[in-house]
Design goal:
Layout: E1 2-11, E2 18-27, E3 39-46, H1 54-68, E4 75-81, E5 85-90, H2 97-104, H3 115-128, E6 135-142, H4 153-165, E7 169-175, H5 181-191, E8 192-198, H6 204-216, E9 218-229, E10 234-238, E11 244-247, E12 250-259, E13 264-272, E14 280-293, E15 299-311, H7 320-343, H8 347-364, H9 367-384, H10 390-404, H11 408-414
Parallel strand pairs: 3-4, 3-6, 6-7, 7-8
Antiparallel strand pairs: 1-2, 2-13, 4-5, 9-12, 9-14, 10-13, 11-12, 14-15
Helix pairs in contact: 1-2, 1-6, 4-5, 7-8, 7-9, 7-10, 8-9, 10-11
């Protein structure tokens, strides 16, 4: 696994110290197809009544795409749920992927949404087929609220966390404007998977492609970064929104999985409280801990310590890549602030926050910042016109999440006007 740090620094506003930002990039290299970790999946599809029409057709198409990307060594089970949970089939015992694809085509919408029942069945089947060196995951798709079975958010999140500790992770896919995004995001975060949002039916294949291609390019698991401030600095914050815990003066950032197709970025801010520096300043160090998949098909536990330090001068150092990442993360924060304001009835404040951020993004001058600026202005207009709806809120929240978790390839699939 490759790792790199870029430093950007400037004087504090009071000119009595330095603000230092370190952009840590982690890049995995997936094993060749012959050596990749076999997949052990359960695909749980919501077939409640609200999934009728284009939704169920798109879900069938996306599920079929996923099935056809699997290799003979992969295991997969298909579960369909409304108020009743059915195991549609699984590969093995004479059932082939082609058979399972034909079964997908027969799934039809029915009753209410027993989300917990479908997920629990998926977890059970994945756990039963779990083997060393396999990637074990439940992929849950729903367009509604949990209204049958277990419906308590904390209980469902706790179950996903327990499954992760036992080696089974959870990805959630919300379809349309009516699902509970806070529940699905909490389950995916606790379960070590990915939360996705499908705004339009034609996005479903792209979302399933994003998930399966990520799993097929898995390079490292259980990745964490421990941040230890040095003698000359204080740790301030991590700008990206990964889970962070603090112990013994160090901050541990849980990154999760790293895929060969997508590097991960972590923007870390330190404060050097004095400008009286001589030579190299001891800013700190990061300790990267990961279970890396090897070219031979095994897993290698790696632990790497990277010192962070540099001579600092009052002129500062504006590192373009760090400034660009900072803009994007701040834009994600502006989306979240606008959502909070809009939900409190402060439409003017929400629109103003978006427009101010859009002006800054436009100055960035890159295709990414210009697209974000245009998108924020469009959303600001919708908020002012009182046409901002549940789909817009989910879109805003998912784009903020994608930036906070460095999910650039999914961001390309989600953005409007693509």
């Amino acid at each position: 696994m490759k790792h790199d740090v870029l430093l950007d620094y400037e004087l504090t506003t009071a000119r009595d110290g330095f603000v230092v930002r370190a952009l840590l990039t982690l890049e995995g290299q997936a094993p060749a197809d012959a050596a990749r970790a076999p997949l052990n999946l359960a695909l749980v599809l919501d077939r409640s009544g609200s999934m009728g029409g284009e939704k169920i057709a798109a879900a069938r198409e996306a599920a079929t795409f996923l099935l056809r990307r699997l290799a003979p060594e992969d295991a997969v089970a298909l579960i369909a749920n409304d108020d009743v949970v059915d195991t549609v089939g699984s590969v093995g015992n004479g059932t082939t992927v082609a058979d399972l694809a034909r079964m997908v085509a027969l799934i039809a919408p029915g009753g209410s949404t027993n989300l917990s029942g479908g997920w629990l069945r998926g977890r059970e089947l994945v756990a039963a087929a779990k083997r060393d060196q396999r990637v074990n995951r439940v992929i849950l798709l729903t367009d509604g609220q949990a209204n049958a079975g277990i419906i308590d958010r904390e209980q469902l999140t706790g179950l996903a966390a327990t499954a992760k500790r036992n080696g089974v992770t959870t990805t959630t896919i919300g379809f349309g404007a009516d699902y509970d995004e806070q529940l699905l995001r909490a389950m995916a975060d606790a379960g070590g998977g990915n939360p996705y949002y499908i705004e339009q039916p034609d996005q479903a294949p792209g979302v399933f492609e994003e998930e399966i291609e990520g799993l097929l390019s898995l390079a490292a698991q259980n990745v964490s970064v421990e941040i230890r401030p040095g003698a000359d600095a204080r740790f301030v914050r991590v700008w990206h929104d990964y889970p962070v815990s603090v112990a013994n003066g160090a901050s541990r950032v849980e990154i999760g999985d790293i895929y060969g197709r997508e590097p991960k970025s972590i923007l870390i801010e330190f404060l050097v409280p004095s400008i009286a520096t001589n030579g190299r300043v001891d800013i700190g160090e990061v300790v990267i801990d990961a279970h890396v998949l090897t070219a031979e098909g095994g897993v290698d536990h790696q632990r790497v310590t990277m010192p962070i330090g540099a001579p600092l001068s009052p002129e500062g150092n504006a590192e373009p890549a760090v400034r660009h990442e900072m803009l994007l993360v701040r834009a994600a924060g502006a989306r979240e602030e606008a959502l909070r304001r809009e939900q409190m009835g402060d439409a003017a404040g929400a629109a103003d926050a978006l427009r101010r951020m859009a002006s800054e993004l436009a100055l960035g001058g890159t295709p990414t910042t210009l697209e974000q600026a245009a998108d924020l202005r469009i959303v600001a207009e919708k908020i002012e016109a009182r046409s901002f709806d549940a789909a817009d809120a989910k879109y805003m929240a998912q784009r903020a999440y994608n930036t906070h978790r460095a999910k650039a390839t999914y961001e390309d699939k989600l953005r409007r006007g693509r």
